[in-house]
From TrEMBL:
<keyword id="KW-0328">Glycosyltransferase</keyword>
<dbReference type="GO" id="GO:0047213">
    <property type="term" value="F:anthocyanidin 3-O-glucosyltransferase activity"/>
</dbReference>
<dbReference type="InterPro" id="IPR035595">
    <property type="entry name" value="UDP_glycos_trans_CS"/>
</dbReference>
<dbReference type="Pfam" id="PF00201">
    <property type="entry name" value="UDPGT"/>
</dbReference>
<comment type="similarity">
    <text>Belongs to the UDP-glycosyltransferase family.</text>
</comment>
<dbReference type="InterPro" id="IPR050481">
    <property type="entry name" value="UDP-glycosyltransf_plant"/>
</dbReference>
<dbReference type="GO" id="GO:0009718">
    <property type="term" value="P:anthocyanin-containing compound biosynthetic process"/>
</dbReference>
<dbReference type="InterPro" id="IPR002213">
    <property type="entry name" value="UDP_glucos_trans"/>
</dbReference>
<comment type="pathway">
    <text>Pigment biosynthesis; anthocyanin biosynthesis.</text>
</comment>
<keyword id="KW-0732">Signal</keyword>
<protein>
    <recommendedName>
        <fullName>Glycosyltransferase</fullName>
        <ecNumber>2.4.1.-</ecNumber>
    </recommendedName>
</protein>
<keyword id="KW-0808">Transferase</keyword>
<feature type="signal peptide">
    <location>
        <begin position="1"/>
        <end position="20"/>
    </location>
</feature>
<dbReference type="GO" id="GO:0035251">
    <property type="term" value="F:UDP-glucosyltransferase activity"/>
</dbReference>
Length: 459
């Protein structure tokens, strides 16, 4: 790879200590480095080893290790959100806040033009003291920010927000399709929970956005333009779009075992199901999901973490399941190369939790898309894909939040029945969006415009 010429535009990247945040920040750093922008990337020591291979421009992107201070109650050695169960994450936020002195020192030493950050709401206090600018960068969908984290969503300070309040879209919300249903709201009540010492999640993110010099969103005008405009008008800020900032396709080929297995099936016939690195299902729901895949009669590859209370996926499988699906179904508890699996010609359907990264990977693929969201922003991403873009189907859940094997099977069959009206409509809509996204100039156009916006902000 030829080295881009270094410009004098240097910035600091400071993402939340979770891989779903650090990774997209690093992809953005790579895109900016391609154009000569250098950056100092602040992250926990342990994360450096795990992200090193994704730094495509080590002569322009310098990883600076932060020591994560101990906070009472946080398991010893915790450095990132993936080290701990979700109930400890508020303590990790407190630990991040205690890195403030280290961050100030780096600002003093490197003299950047600006800092790009997300959840560290105190960053603008540092930048104002040094006379530099701060951009708050959201790596989740603009639709999710626009429904939950805008001033019009008047979250009470003296008591937690109620389910009934969250069911009502905020004033001016630009979509009637992307809303919560009753059973889904529970996953969003975390916004009024503590996230750090003496601050709730909602207060933290709202402050981080309000105090910034500009907002940036990891999305594009074509898909979420109206949501970005709404957020900008709510906060009275300029909103810069980076585009989806997808990683370069990995150079490492798909593991041999999967190439061999997938190649035993007809093109476009295999269902691939994966829910990312954070989702851990209850055992009964895990069993319902795999039974739903069995019911389709199609070949399938499932990559999921072992469910709650089990140490392997094998011990959680329904009775006699492995015998029944032998030769056409695999349930795998380890990591798989998701992008590479989606590229394989035999894979025709992607069953996803619709995390924001997986959402874009699904859009860039040739596969039909079936969505089973679990958490707040995944639910909104799902609604966006299924009802705004109309490129996917969502598995119907009961009022309790339970999804049945019958509904899993029905959703997959509806998109895999090649002659059906649903299948044809989704495929055609998906093709239009994918063609736009893979167009050569599309991504670079957003990055160029983002760099121009940063220059205008600091000059």
């Amino acid at each position: 790879m030829s080295h881009p010429k270094k410009s004098n535009f240097h910035l600091i990247m400071f993402p939340w200590f979770a891989f779903g945040h650090m990774t997209p920040f690093l992809h953005l750093s790579n895109k900016l480095a391609e154009k000569g922008c250098s950056s100092t990337f602040l992250l926990p020591n342990k994360a450096i080893q795990q992200l090193q291979h994704l730094n495509l421009y080590p002569h322009l992107i310098t990883f600076h290790p932060l020591t994560v201070p101990h906070v009472d109650g946080l398991p010893p050695g915790t450095q990132t959100a993936s080290d701990i169960p979700i109930q400890f994450v508020h303590l990790l936020a407190a630990a991040m806040d205690r890195t403030r002195d280290q961050v100030e020192r780096v600002v003093r030493d490197t003299k950047p033009k600006l800092i790009i950050y997300d959840v560290a709401h105190w960053v603008p206090e540092i930048t104002k003291a040094f006379g530099i600018k701060a951009i708050n960068y959201s790596v989740v969908s603009a639709a999710a920010i626009a429904i939950v984290l805008v001033p019009a969503r008047n979250v009470p300070k003296d008591r937690p927000i109620t389910e009934a309040e969250l069911l009502v879209p905020p004033t001016g919300y630009p979509s009637s399709a992307i809303v919560f249903r009753g059973h889904e709201v529970r996953s969003l009540l975390f916004v009024s929970q503590p996230f750090g010492e003496g601050i709730t999640f909602h207060e933290r993110i709202s402050k981080a956005m309000k105090e910034s010099d500009a907002l940036a969103m990891r999305t594009c005008d074509e898909t979420e333009g109206k949501f970005c405009e709404y957020i900008g008008s709510q906060y009275g800020k300029r909103v810069f779009l980076t585009g989806p900032v997808l990683p370069e396709p990995p150079k490492i080929p798909l593991e041999d075992r999967w190439v061999k297995w997938l190649s035993g099936f007809q093109p476009g016939s295999v269902v691939f199901c994966a829910f990312g690195s954070q989702i851990v299902l209850e055992k009964n729901q895990f069993q319902e999901l795999v039974l739903g895949l069995e019911l389709t009669g199609l070949p399938f590859l499932v990559a999921l973490k072992p469910p709650v209370g089990t140490s392997t996926v094998e011990e959680a499988l329904p009775e006699a399941f492995e015998e029944r699906v032998r030769g056409r179904g695999v349930v795998w508890g380890g990591w798989v190369q998701q992008l590479k699996v989606l590229e394989h010609p035999s894979v025709g359907c992607f069953v996803s939790h619709c995390g924001f990264g997986s959402m874009w990977e699904a859009l860039m693929s040739d596969c039909q898309i079936v969505l089973v969201p679990h958490l707040g922003d995944q639910i909104l991403n799902t609604r966006f894909m299924a009802e705004e873009l109309q490129v996917a189907v969502e598995v119907v859940r009961e009022e309790s939040g339970w999804f049945s094997k019958e509904n899993v099977s029905k959703s997959i069959k509806s998109v895999m029945d090649k002659g059906s009206e649903t299948s044809l409509r989704l495929k055609e809509n998906h093709r239009k969006w994918r063609d736009m996204l893979v167009n050569n100039g599309f991504m670079t156009g957003y990055v160029d415009k983002f760099i121009q916006s940063m220059h205008e902000l600091v000059n």
